[in-house]
Design goal:
The complex is a heterodimer of chains A (217) and B (225).
Chain A (H helix, E strand, L loop, with lengths): L12 E10 L2 E11 L4 E6 L5 H8 L11 E4 L2 E3 L8 E4 L11 H12 L3 H14 L15 H10 L9 E5 L7 H16 L3 E5 L10 E5 L2
Parallel strand pairs in A: 3-8, 3-9, 6-7, 7-8
Antiparallel strand pairs in A: 1-2, 1-4, 4-5
Chain B lengths: L1 H9 L1 H21 L6 H4 L2 H20 L4 H5 L2 H7 L3 H29 L9 H33 L5 H6 L4 H15 L9 H16 L1 H12 L1
Helix pairs in contact in B: 2-4, 2-7, 4-7, 4-8, 4-10, 7-8, 7-12, 8-10, 8-11, 8-12, 10-11
Classes of the chains: A alpha/beta (217), B mainly alpha (225).
């Protein structure tokens, strides 16, 4: 398996007093956490507790966030919307057009997310290798199983190598044991390179998570 | 490129707008002449121009509905926000793909219909080459306004459907100036309100102003996330 070694990251993230409101209801209030390079935060909570809202807020979709949150990137205060430059998020839904092949969808996103076109082509190859997509690389997305689509969605992490912060929302959903092993390797490589990861999941991630955040209803 | 691939695979996307224009023209023409007389000989120039302009407008409006909903449902809009280019590039790409995939086939369909009209002040071929750029200019306005309305409808669930209704009058200005251009340049009628050059200048001005809606559309999409 090709292991991509990117340039080392060395960032620190501190979030103080983040609270999310959706549909007029407070999902959670006044949560704080800190992440340094190579660290992993596991977010747990019941359905509807705001795990997805937290991740979406951290990548700039701050419609859910109450005023009063303070975010520090490398100990400098920044707005939540500015974190988008340094993060990459994989959510519940797979952003692929069903009638296009996996390769065509990823090629489109690599053009959007890569800093330069030449780098985008390399990123595509790494995306393919990291999650073993070769066997269905040119299949239209509507023909793929849920697990195959999820692998394709997770491979988008390789399309923005400049992102030091990964935000993963239930990444293990629909993955088989092989896919889970690929995901674990990718996350470990990213952390070894100094990156940070925040993963919302119902899985037990205590083996690799240095921090834990539990959201209540 | 992605929109072109999608339209090719979906197959219906390319032909549905000209088919709508053709079908609506046929239905409206026969509705005007229930005695089955030649419809185009009965239609006065303004009515024909208005018909063409209206059909163009409605066809484009129908084609634009939900232009962003597919991306919104798949959370693709949020990923555009994570890129260095942001949402504005995405909106411009949608604008160009709409013009090329839906708008130009619609304009060609309507301009071809002009060839069958007997009361033209110019030769049929000249009329075609005069009508086509006028319709394309109208399309620039309608595409910009339509994308703005499509971005508003994404927020309609959270705000109010009144936003959609209030924005429909935005289509009137380019429609009126398009009809005026077509009437003054193609028809032999004396009931033209504006001569050709002023109406063309107004249509050009409307199109340029409508382009200013594109960054506002990008801002609306960002606030939808």
């Amino acid at each position: 398996m090709v292991v991509r070694v990117s340039e080392k990251f060395s960032h620190k993230l501190a979030v103080n007093g983040i609270a999310c409101v959706a549909g007029g209801q407070t999902l959670f209030s006044a949560r704080s956490f800190t992440l340094s390079k190579g660290e992993f935060l596991a977010v747990y909570g019941a359905n509807g507790s705001g795990k997805s809202c937290l991740l979406r807020s951290l990548c700039g979709c701050d419609n859910f966030v109450r005023a009063g949150v303070r975010v520090f990137w490398d100990e400098q205060p920044i707005a939540l919307s500015e974190l988008a430059k340094d993060c990459m998020r994989v959510g519940h839904k797979v952003p692929f057009l069903a009638s296009l092949s996996l390769f065509e969808n990823l090629q489109f996103w690599s053009d959007i997310l890569a800093a330069e076109a030449r780098i985008g082509i390399d990123n595509l190859k790494h995306a393919n290798a990291n999650f073993a997509l070769a066997s269905f690389w040119h299949e239209p997305t509507w023909r793929l199983s849920a697990g195959q689509r999820q692998r394709g969605a997770l491979s988008m992490l390789a399309l923005k190598p400049q992102a030091s912060l990964w935000l993963l929302d239930e990444p293990h959903a629909a993955l088989d044991s092989d896919g889970r092993a690929c995901l674990k390797r990718c996350i470990e490589n990213h952390l070894n390179n100094g990156g940070m990861a925040i993963v919302a999941s119902h899985e037990d991630l205590s083996a690799i998570a240095q921090h834990r955040l539990t959201l209540c209803e | 490129m992605r929109e072109w691939r999608f339209a090719r695979r979906e197959r219906s996307a390319l032909w549905i707008t000209p088919a709508f224009v053709t079908l609506s023209s046929a239905i409206l023409a026969f509705a005007l002449s229930p005695l089955s007389l030649p419809p185009f000989s009965l239609a006065p120039s303004v009515l024909f121009s208005a018909n063409s302009g209206l059909l163009l407008c409605f066809a484009c409006m129908l084609a634009l509905d939900g232009w962003f909903s597919r991306d919104s449902e798949k959370e693709a809009l949020e990923i555009y926000g994570l890129s260095e280019y942001g949402t504005l590039l995405f909106v411009c790409g949608k604008f160009l793909s709409f013009l090329l995939l839906r708008g130009i086939p619609t304009a060609l369909s309507v301009a071809l219909a002009v060839l069958f009209y007997p009361r033209l002040s110019l030769s049929p071929l000249s009329s075609f080459f005069v009508a086509l750029p006028i319709l394309c200019l109208c399309l620039v306005s309608i595409a910009s306004i339509g994308l703005f309305v499509a971005a508003l409808t994404l927020q309609a669930d959270a705000r109010s459907e009144n936003a959609l209704l209030l924005s429909l009058p935005l289509f009137l200005a380019p429609l009126i100036f398009t009809i005026a251009c077509l009437s003054s340049s193609l028809s032999q009628a004396n009931d033209v309100i504006l001569t050709f050059l002023p109406s063309l200048l107004l249509l050009c001005g409307t199109s340029f102003l409508a382009l200013a809606l594109l960054p506002i559309t990008a801002f609306l999409l960002d606030s939808t996330n």
